[in-house]
Amino acid sequence: MSTWRRDLAAARDRDPAARSSLEVALLYPGVHAVWVHRVAHRLWKQDHRFLARMLSQLARNRTGIEIHPGATLGPGLFIDHGMGVVIGETAEVGENVTLYHGVTLGGTTLDRGKRHPTIGDRVIIGAGAKVLGAIEIGADSRIGANAVVVRPVPRNSVVVGVPGQIVSRSRASTEVPEPDLDEVELPDLVGASLKSLLKRVDELETTVTGHTSADAIRPSTEGVWSGLDFSI
């Protein structure tokens, strides 16, 4: 299957709203941005730099997705919705990667060398996430929405928070083109830490006084917080 067809198939497979290949080919800005980039990148490699940049800017104005023509994009890339996505000049994106709107693959230096991330195969990057610097995101990893990632991520990891915290998966992700898109399963590191601290405080209070504090603010067993302090 050609690279362009794989891009089209990726959108069909990963967007349940897609009803036909014709609809995707004509109406999906993420697909259009990737296809225009493939032409612009070829011009860039042939040293037609001005023409390549002009083409990329036309695509940016049309789709809201900014991809530098120097960036390298693997086949099967799907940019869902796409508005506000920025991919820098030295970024490298592997096969079957999924990016959501507001994602930035950006740089952290003014050096002209490698300054943008390298994204492994089958990586998913959630809406609003920022991956910054010449770092590598390992294959089969998942970046949570609005995470800010500034250090390398081992393969098969999950990253959440600001700055991004790396969580190893308890179950290995299978190496198949279909990504795991269930954002509900992302870990809540702050919540888990608070729950652990509250449990330890309860144990200490029980040891010292024989009971826990009745006025302690804590969530219910369903995870719902309540209290007069939260009234608005």
Supply the helix-strand structural class: alpha/beta
How would you spell out the order of helices and strands?
HHHHEEEEEEEEEEEEEEEH
Strand content: 15-25%
Give the helix level as a range of percent: 25-40%
Explain what you see.
With 232 residues, the protein is α/β, with parallel strands linked by helices. It has helices at 3-14, 21-27, 29-45, 49-63, 189-209, and strands at 66-67, 72-73, 78-79, 86-87, 92-93, 98-99, 104-106, 118-119, 124-125, 130-132, 136-137, 142-143, 148-149, 157-160, 165-168. The chain has two domains: 3-185, 3 Solenoid (UDP N-Acetylglucosamine Acyltransferase, domain 1), CATH 2.160.10.10; 189-230, no CATH class. Helices cover 31% and strands 16% of the residues. A hairpin with a 4-residue loop joins strand 14 and strand 15. Pathway: Amino-acid biosynthesis; L-cysteine biosynthesis; L-cysteine from L-serine: step 1/2. It is found in: Cytoplasm. This is Serine acetyltransferase.
Characteristics:
2 domains, 15 strands, UDP N-Acetylglucosamine Acyltransferase, domain 1, 232 residues, six-stranded mixed sheet, alpha/beta, 31% helix, five-stranded parallel sheet
Task: Annotate the secondary structure layout.
Layout: H1 3-14, H2 21-27, H3 29-45, H4 49-63, E1 66-67, E2 72-73, E3 78-79, E4 86-87, E5 92-93, E6 98-99, E7 104-106, E8 118-119, E9 124-125, E10 130-132, E11 136-137, E12 142-143, E13 148-149, E14 157-160, E15 165-168, H5 189-209
Parallel strand pairs: 1-4, 2-5, 3-6, 4-7, 5-8, 6-9, 7-10, 8-11, 9-12, 10-13, 12-14
Antiparallel strand pairs: 14-15
Helix pairs in contact: 3-4
